[in-house]
Structures are given as structure tokens and as C-alpha cells.
Amino acid sequence: MKLLDDLGQYLLLIKHALVKPPNWRMYGRELIRQMYDIGNGSLLIIALIAIFIGAVTAVQFLYQLDGTLIPTWYIGYIVRDSTIIELAPTISCLVLAGKVGSNMASEIGGMRQKEHIDAMEVMGVNTPSYLILPKILASVMVIPLLVIVAAFVSIIGGYLASVGGGYMNTEEYTRGLRAFFISNNLWMMLFKSVVFAFILTSVSCYQGYFVKGGSVELGKASTNAVVVSNILILVSDYIIALMFTT
Questions:
Q1: Whole-prediction pTM
Q2: What pLDDT, on the 0 to 100 scale, is given for residue 232?
């Protein structure tokens, strides 16, 4: 029953959040602030993680292909498709759920505890829309860009590990990158990143919006935001994979 109660409460909150803003200028300023915080605050960590994802993918598949008849230039193809289809959108958004999502839950939860949200509601402000809508819009616009950067950097990481490690030359890695390219995979990556961005933002805002109690409860809300977001991201990842591949 609690699961159904939470689901109903979440859907009602999102319904109230996704409405036309009464003041575009005020919402615009908040939207830009959120976009800057998400993008600027996450770019370095996403790039750092992505370069090692590409490098590890290349090294592990080189190990698995050792002694087989599969040519080594397949590494470029494997790194490219592994990154685009799965690793860049999923790993990046799992990390962002921990960084961006927990920050959002703490920010809104802190406002709830200090009764800022109650004060805004007394003044007639639609708090779900004002507090959550700019965050959702900023996430679905900025996080796909971060995922594109992650995919690009990951492919560079694969190059550094395979070519820089002396396993193949640049021409072989480039040949793999150009082989068997399917443009639909790029659309799958972008679709995943938009869905994951919406999940991690809306779930985190929900956890913060309804927090009750003191600092201990706020910490639990931030933790729940990360855990629930990660679970829903992985479930939706499976569903999207079925949608695009069957």
C-alpha cells in the first residue's frame, strides 16, 4: 500500500509541477541557474569517469579477443557501440543521480524544513511548479549534452588505452570506429539520457518535497533519492533497450 501511496503522491506532484509558468521571466532566471549548476558542476566528473570507461572497455575486450581470429580493429567498433548504446547514458546518469539528484533533494528538503515552501504556498505560489519545473527542464536539456560529451571522451579513452598501449595503430582503431555504424544507436542514447534525466530529477525533487523531520530525515531523503533513481534508471534502461532492439 505504501508503494501505491508514494506512486500516487509522486504523480500528483509531477502533475502540479508540469504546468504553464505564470511568470516566464522568473522561471527563466531559475532555469538558467539550474542549467549552469548541472552542466558546469558535473562536466569534469563526467569526463573523468568517461575516459576510464572507454579505457577499461578497450583493455578488457583486448584481453578477451587475445588468441581469437577476431581482428584487433574490432576494439574501436566495440568501444564505440558499448559507449553509445549503454555506458555513456547509463553510467553518466547513475553518477548524476548521486551528485545532482541528492543536491536537489537536499535543497528542496531544506526549504521544506525551514518552512520556506509553506510561506510561498501562503502567498499563492504554485511551489511544485516553481521549485521543480525549472529543475526538470534544465536536466532534460543539459544532461543529454553531458552524455554526448561522455560518449566522445570515452571513445578517446579507448583510443589512449589501445593505441597508446601499443595494441594497435591509429588506422586500425579508426577503422573500427567507422565499421557497422547504425545511426539509430545515437537516437537510443539521446532518448535514454532524456528519460534518465527526468527520472533522477523528478524522483529527487519528490523525496525532498515531502521530507518530514530534522536533519536525519533529510539525509534519508537524499539517500532514497539516489537509490530509487538508480533502480528506476536501470529498469527503464531495460525497457528502452527492448523498445529499440526488438
A1: 0.90
A2: 95
